[in-house]
Amino acid sequence: MTEGKKKNEWLEWIKAIIIAVLIALFLRTFIFATSIVDGESMYPTLENGERVIFNKIVYLLDEPERGDIVIIERPLKNYVKRVIGLPGETIEINGSNLLINGKEVKQSYLTEEALRQTGNYGPIEVPPDSYFVMGDNRAISKDSRNGLGFIEEGNIIGRSEFIIFPFDEWSMTR
């Protein structure tokens, strides 16, 4: 192999590596990112220490829907919660019953214990451009009922898609 061919091969490798790094940075910055679940507020859907991939672009194209597990950006830390109430809806919780605009909504993602520990709340109307969120572990969750308040659409930075760590728990988060 001649000196010129070796140099050309090295340049091709360097270009390929630079392109791969740029693509990875683009995907991480604008499309997907990871977040670590901190605490038990989303148990049993998500457990403390699990790493999830979240989709950052989905809400540029669409709006959050009831049931979505979202990443909420706050100054000190991000939160992982489930969207319960949409803009303009009236939310009321009577024990294990969730009422939205006066109609009961089933919460199949909750355990019987979580349903029993939900308590009472509302009725309260969700402001325009805001969402009402709760953790699946209702007894201990800091959420729209008790500390986070209504979540403005701009503070929702993505939708959780996959559990990627620990490896034996790879799954969809919906």
Polypeptide structure, described:
- The N and C termini lie far apart (55 Å).
- The protein has a single domain, classed as Umud Fragment, subunit A (Ribbon), CATH 2.10.109.10.
- It contains three helices and twelve strands.
- It is of the alpha+beta class and 174 residues long.
- 27% of the residues are buried.
- This is Signal peptidase I.
- Keywords: Cell membrane, Hydrolase, Membrane, Protease, Transmembrane, Transmembrane helix.
- The chain crosses the membrane at residues 12-33.
- Residues 10-164 form the Peptidase S26 domain.
Query: How much is the average pLDDT?
Result: 84
Shape: elongated
Number of domain units: 1
**Which structural class matches the secondary elements?**
alpha+beta
CATH class: Mainly Beta
Radius of gyration (Å): 21 Å
Element order: H for helix, E for strand: HEEHEEEEEHEEEEE
User: Largest beta sheet, briefly?
Assistant: 8 strands, antiparallel
Contiguous runs where pLDDT drops below 50 for at least 5 residues: none
**Straight-line N-to-C gap:** 55 Å
Q: Strand content of the residues, in percent? A: 25-35%
User: Architecture, according to CATH?
Assistant: Ribbon
Instruction: Specify the CATH homologous superfamily.
Output: Umud Fragment, subunit A
Helical proportion, percent range? 10-25%
CATH-defined topology: Umud Fragment, subunit A
Number of strands: 12
Number of helices: 3
